From TrEMBL:
Acts as a processive, ATP-dependent zinc metallopeptidase for both cytoplasmic and membrane proteins. Plays a role in the quality control of integral membrane proteins. GO terms for biological process: protein catabolic process; proteolysis. The lineage of its organism: Bacteria, Pseudomonadati, Bacteroidota, Flavobacteriia, Flavobacteriales. This is ATP-dependent zinc metalloprotease FtsH. It comes from Confluentibacter flavum. CDD domains: RecA-like_FtsH. Zn(2+) binds at H459, H463, D534.
Length: 646
């Protein structure tokens, strides 16, 4: 890593703002030395001693300088005394240039004066303090200068901070604010990631492999008249391995690789982003063939002109415009390829995606069951695990997990095994890790009253019972009433990985989700706040059915979804008030129908529900087998999906 820094920053001017601090310090020290030049000084004393001298009649004259310092001149006789040995003798000098024998600061003038007067009176002396003002022009001048020096120091400090060059110690970043902040990986900095470390993602890997090929053997493609693409956009949910893929490209291509994040362009000064883009491309061209990788490009690539009102996105637009210009500007022979990653392709500006810029879009999706197995294989390599660990089982248990989640499961499992003092990581550790990642930490000592526990048990048993009865509801894996994270209990399913979903499937799932609240109603004739997350899920799903997927008869085959993301409906809805009412009615009807259906199902199977809940109360965790024992094999009560009449 040290090398990257060196590569980018080696030409910076040798300017060190610390000299300002140095000068200030030197002036200050010099001033101190000058001011306290030994010759002028008297010996040091303090007020108590001084008053004693006055009482003894040793003092010839007292000067009060600048209302702060007393200078004491002794009489000739006193000076000869042993007690005044430490004073500076002065009687040898001519009277005019006489220097004080003692000097001290007395603090509050008035108190000192009063005390002195009292001593003089008491001792009946003839001593009158002389008041003088001494001016020190140099001090005044320097004190006047100090604020400016401080101000300049603070300014330089802030500039250094803003140019992001806090690290490294050397100054000069004040001139670097418009320079690109990309990290450079090249021959000197080894990137160890290769395509072997990227599991699954066959399609995406093939595409990026081709990019590596373009850079290594451009002639192969250009001899036939083809043009080498300028950019590729990796699109996909977070944690699916986009960054990993880009890093693997760097590792494989062995060409200079500039890596930065979209937000690195953004700074509080206008014009800095654009200037950084220019600088980045300049550097990349100098080192071509090379790759520029921009992570989270949505930070700058968001569609322009959406918030025309706020006017605050000018700077981002300028940055984006500069990026577009640069991508247009370099010819196909410059051999610089830009790879960008985002998980929000829908909000990107259309201009970014037109041919000639990011002409390739590579989708990096959540892994399917086979890919999950491969990812497990990659991340299990460094672990000490039990011999016949069933990878198929693990990948079946982790639907919807991204590569990053799986990496996390493996790590978490190893930690759990270590905590339990095991020599190998076994299947149970993995299952615990999955539970922990989905549900959060187990909270065994959370205080729950027996009646709350009962309610939770019936709620979860309700989910389990309803989903057991419905054909399309996801099969249940386990039900638990051990509190975890923020939830008091959970029923876990193994959803089928479907690409298209039919309305019946959605309705069955909603019915199962409402099973918890329905069970509370059926058993206790009371409902509770415990169903919040179920209701949220169901409401979202019903709204999507009506307004996005066009699955409602009454609203019809239309959608209010806008994939371009160019229109964000703020206060204006794309439908009339009347339609809005219809939509609300439809959503509410769908949910109510499913709720009634769940209630009916549970009423019909009340005995089984009770049995299950009681088992759950004892065991706290039950699995599919327990359900089979109670219910027999899944009966599939395919009811009228519209639900029973009101
Ligand atoms: P993204 O950039 O898509 O948000 P990352 O590339 O940063 O995700 O992935 C985070 C981590 O997840 C990686 O460092 C890696 O450990 C793991 N990971 C993700 N996808 C895969 C994969 N296909 N194969 C192996 N590991 C993966």
């Amino acid at each position: 890593m040290a090398n990257e820094k060196k590569n980018i920053k080696e030409n910076k001017p040798k300017f060190n703002p610390y000299w300002i601090y140095g000068i200030a310090l030197a002036i200050f020290i010099g001033f101190q030395i000058f001011n306290s030049s030994g010759y002028e000084d008297g010996g040091i004393t303090n007020p108590t001693e001084f008053f004693k001298f006055v009482e003894n009649g040793d003092v010839d004259k007292v000067e009060i300088v600048n209302q702060r310092i007393a200078k004491v001149y002794l009489t000739k006789e006193a000076e000869a005394q042993e007690i005044h040995k430490k004073s500076k003798p002065n009687t040898l000098l001519p009277t005019a240039t006489r220097l004080p024998n003692y000097k001290f600061e007395f603090g509050e003038l008035e108190i000192f004066q009063n005390k002195l007067n009292k001593v003089i009176e008491d001792s009946n002396l003839n001593l009158e303090p002389v008041y003088i003002t001494e001016e020190n022009h140099l001090t005044d001048f320097l004190l006047g200068l100090l604020p400016f020096i401080l101000l300049i120091g603070v300014w330089i400090f802030i500039m250094r901070r803003m140019s992001g060059g806090a690290g490294g110690g050397a100054g000069g970043q004040i001139f670097n604010i418009g320079k690109s902040k990309a990290k450079l990986f090249d021959q000197n900095t080894e990137v160890k990631t290769t395509f072997k470390d990227v599991a699954g993602l066959e399609g995406a890997k093939e595409e990026v492999q081709e990019i590596v090929d373009f850079l290594k053997f451009p002639e192969k493609y250009t001899t036939l008249g083809g043009k080498i693409p300028k950019g590729a956009l990796l699109v996909g949910p977070p944690g699916t391995g986009k960054t990993l893929l880009a890093r693997a490209v760097a590792g494989e291509a062995k060409v200079p690789f500039f890596s930065l994040s979209g937000s690195d362009f953004v700074e509080m000064f206008v014009g800095v982003g654009a200037s950084r883009v220019r600088d980045l491309f300049k550097q990349a061209k100098e080192k071509s063939p090379s790759i520029i990788f921009i992570d989270e490009i949505d930070a700058i690539g968001r569609a322009r002109g959406k918030n025309a009102m706020s006017g605050s996105n000018d700077e981002r637009e300028n940055t984006l415009n500069q990026l577009l210009t640069e991508m247009d500007g370099f010819g196909t022979n410059t051999n610089v390829i830009v790879i960008a990653a985002t998980n929000r392709a829908d909000i990107l500006d259309k201009a970014l995606m037109r041919a000639g810029r990011f002409d390739r879009q590579i989708f990096v999706d959540l892994p399917d069951i086979r890919e999950r197995k491969e990812i497990f294989e990659v991340h299990l390599r460094p672990l000490k695990k039990e011999k016949d660990l069933d990878l198929d089982f693990l990948s079946r248990q982790t639907p919807g997990f991204s590569g990053a989640d799986i990496a996390n499961v493996c790590n978490e499992a190893a930690l759990i095994a270590a905590r339990n003092g095991k020599k190998f990581v076994d299947k149970q550790d993995f299952l615990d890790a999955v539970d922990r990642i989905i549900g959060g930490l187990e909270k065994k000592n959370k205080i729950i009253t027996p009646s709350e526990k009962r309610a939770v048990a019936y709620h979860e048993a309700g989910h389990a019972t309803v989903s057991w009865m419905l054909e399309h509801a996801a099969p249940l894996v386990k039900v638990t009433i051990v509190p975890r994270g923020r939830s008091l209990g959970a029923a876990w399913y193994l959803p089928e990985e479907r690409l298209i979903v039919h309305p019946e499937q959605m309705l069955d799932e909603m019915c199962a989700a409402l099973g918890g609240r329905a069970a509370e109603k059926v058993m206790f004739d009371k409902i509770s706040t415990g169903a919040l997350s179920d209701l949220e899920k169901v409401t979202k799903q019903a709204r999507a059915m009506v307004t996005i997927y066009g699955l409602s008869d009454k609203v019809g085959n239309l959608t209010y979804y806008d994939s371009s993301g160019q229109n964000e409906y703020g206060f204006t809805k794309p439908y009339s008030e009347k339609t809005a009412e219809l939509i609300d009615k439809e959503i509410s009807d769908i949910i109510e129908n499913q709720y009634r259906r769940a209630i009916k199902l549970l009423e019909d199977n009340k005995d089984k529900l009770t049995e299950l809940a009681e088992v759950l109360l004892v065991k706290e965790v039950i699995f599919k087998d327990n359900l089979e024992k109670i219910f027999g094999s899944r009966p599939f009560v395919v009811e009228d999906r519209e639900g029973p009449a009101k």
